[in-house]
Design goal:
Layout: E1 14-20, E2 27-34, H1 35-59, H2 72-106, H3 133-146, E3 175-178, E4 189-192, E5 198-200, E6 205-213, E7 217-223, E8 228-238, E9 245-246, E10 251-255, E11 267-274, E12 277-279
């Protein structure tokens, strides 16, 4: 009786896979594998195929052949449309705010919201107000002189007879960033000072205008004697109302940078008008 092989098969049993020449029966290529190694080899091969296919689709233009996937031109058009739509929304919002402010001004009310566009090319916040010992001594002497007298100690050389006996109180103290220039229609002086600094009246007078304009923001105008009018622009808020009487040196507003045009940071635009003609404030006031 022939003996039967009852050996139990396991995953570690080796098998040989070979390729032979059909004519000469010569073995051309062979490989010996166990069931375990064959399973690992097949698994690795399948994962490699999946990974390679995924990479080709994700990082090459082959993904454009997938039905429904947008090509380069379509994606560019979608991006440009989103940018235009966002810009259009901002312009609509600015237009609505502009008309709302115009309506409030016409009705004599305070604008609901102020649109401010600051010049990002200049940093007024980095201005350092450093003073030397000589400056401190001069400042202390001038403050002592001005405590009970508005005279600045410097007489104006401008030939305006009506202003010979008038002494202007400095509305703010700071650095002059823009000077009076008739050629550019800049009829005042720009003074850079600390944010939210108090603006004072230059002379005794009556408030004849308080309001907001798109170009210069919050504005306050004061009528003085001898047909003199002083104007204070780009304020962040006003402390007086039309018709109020003010004294020289009395707070009337707070420095800001309101207005859509002609402003690039917190400062005061100060003008002096005499009989309808502008004057150079630096010839009458020591800022």
């Amino acid at each position: 009786m022939a003996k039967t092989d009852n050996k139990k098969r396991t995953w570690r049993d080796k098998y040989r896979f070979s390729i032979s020449n059909d004519a000469t029966f010569e073995e051309v290529w062979r490989v010996r594998l166990t069931q375990y190694s064959a399973f690992l080899l097949i698994t690795f091969f399948v994962l490699f195929i999946i990974g390679a296919t995924t990479s080709l689709i994700a990082f090459t233009n082959l993904r454009e052949f997938i039905p429904g996937y947008p090509d380069v031109i379509m994606r560019r058009n979608i991006l440009m449309s989103a940018i235009r739509l966002d810009s259009f929304d901002r312009e609509l919002a600015l237009r609505d705010k502009y008309f709302a402010n115009i309506s409030a001004i016409i009705q004599g009310k305070q604008p609901a919201e102020i649109i401010v566009r600051q010049d990002s090319t200049r940093d007024y916040g980095a201005i350092a107000f450093n003073s030397s010992p000589e400056d401190s001594a001069l400042k202390a002497r001038i403050e002592k002189e001005e405590q009970f007298n508005l005279t600045l100690g410097l007489e104006s050389h401008e030939s305006v007879t009506g202003l010979s006996g008038m002494h202007f109180f400095p509305p703010v103290k700071g650095i002059i960033s823009g000077r009076y220039d008739v050629r550019t229609k800049h009829f005042g002086t720009d003074i850079v000072t600390k944010p939210k600094a108090i603006v004072s009246a230059a002379l005794d007078g009556t408030i004849i205008f308080t309001g907001w304009t798109m170009e210069t923001g919050y504005v306050i105008e004061i009528q003085h004697t001898n047909n003199v009018v002083t104007i204070y622009k780009h304020n962040t808020s006003l402390l007086m109302e039309t018709g109020d009487l003010v004294r020289a040196g009395e707070p009337i507003s707070v420095v800001g940078d309101s207005g859509e045009l002609y402003t690039s940071g917190p400062h005061l635009h100060f003008e002096i008008w005499y009989k309808g003609n502008p004057l150079d404030p630096e010839k009458h006031i020591l800022f």
